[in-house]
Amino acid sequence: MHGRSLRGAVFWMALALALLLRGEALAAAKPNIVFMLVDNLGYGELGVYGGGVLRGAPTPRIDTLAGQGLRLLNFNVEAQCTPSRSALMTGRLAIRSGTYAVPLGGQPDGLTLWEETIAELLSRQGYATGMWGKWHLGSGLDRLPTNQGFDEWFGIPRTYDEALWTGQNESKGLWPAVGDAQGWNPKADPPQPIYEARKGEQPKVLRTLDLEQRRLMEGEITRRGIDFMTRQVKAGRPFFAYLSFSLMHFPTLPGPEFAGKTGNGDWADCLAEMDHRVGQVLDALKRLGVEDDTLVIFASDNGPEAIHPWEGSAGPWRGTYFTAMEGSLRAPFIVRWPKKIPAGRVSNEIVHIVDCFTTMARAGGAEIPKDRPIDGVDQMAFFQGRQERSSREGFPAFVANRLTAVKWRNWKGHVLWQEKMFDTPQALPIPKLVNLLADPREERDVGPHNSWVAEHLMKITDDLLKSFKEYPPIPMGTPEPYQPPVNPRP
Known about the structure:
Blueprint: H1 2-29, E1 32-38, H2 60-67, E2 70-76, H3 81-90, H4 94-97, H5 118-123, E3 128-133, E4 152-155, E5 193-198, E6 204-208, H6 211-235, E7 239-244, H7 266-287, E8 294-300, H8 326-329, E9 330-336, E10 345-347, E11 351-352, H9 354-363, H10 380-383, E12 394-399, E13 402-408, E14 411-417, E15 426-435, H11 453-470
Parallel strand pairs: 1-7, 1-8, 2-10, 2-11, 3-4, 3-7
Antiparallel strand pairs: 2-9, 4-5, 5-6, 8-9, 12-13, 13-14, 14-15
Helix pairs in contact: 3-9, 6-7
């Protein structure tokens, strides 16, 4: 009897241990995911990327975060805000989705509802999904985030420079007026709304975006994001929190409590505020007891701000956003997942923003859509150090709908040449090849001595063009409902 009891006790202990391990495995399979996307933060702004005090303000919280995970030196984005955000949400190059440029007024803008966003994929896996800040992927009510997989959203549909519209009044000391006849007319072009929305409900207009509200956005985005995470932890539900921060997009204006804090002007004050807000999010995760269960990604959507007087820094790289120069394509990227991603690692391997979609989806147990081209690759094995190299060797770089350059390993071939956003793109008689290790400023053409590289660059281009024949890109401005051609073939 004693022997049977002992065997029974061992059985139940083994079963309990198995269930415990299974529970831990399930928890590990569905981490919380926090994606902090900052706006137009250049490569040379943060302390760990050579900025910080050199830019007027230290960034201790983000620098510490970098030491707790993996910091990439070769994270690449698209050339403009809308394309980068589209690539993040869908895992598809923006040229495929009709979102390859910042939209102008007068036509349908944003992602068609046919696209599958990361929020939709994670929702199907039981995640609560929330977003706060700039969307920039559709300003019509049918294309707002709560119609694209998010349970809740607070923010603006387009972008922050529209805060300047209401500032066209010299008497208020806000922005140089040009006269009523030439200036902004609120009756013809109403100020942009700041929305609060929940899935399945009509969005509410809380207020309008002006310069005063512009200064308050960062604090409100952070407060609402932390409230969302707190509610989900209490409910025992995994969450995807997408904090689409407003800084450092122009007009680069700090919150009231940060104005004058550094003594080095608005830009440095904003850098200090951005670092503080990131710290608040990280502190909340720790306070809620989910720090070890949360995959945290901090990244920028573009190269540095290029509009005077809010210019940013690309560090060692050349060029501005709206180009395919390294100053446009390379952006900060930090990923932390305690006990899953080794701390203190730094890599110059190529990763593209489309990879975030696939990596987050797989981390959350979601299936990747198979009925369309997905350009993103799963980088988790690389992030976790299970492989030294990235799962990607290169990518095509578009500026709007123009194929402008192709990167492969440390090589880059320019098809068009454009250094700054307001320069006229110049077609080159033959591609200009640069070695980014030897020539980070992209000043010397080494193509004649390294023609062997052309085969690798052409393969990336040819593969893309073949996929266009089978899956034609969605034209920009396509209205709803959109359905792809039936069984398209070359």
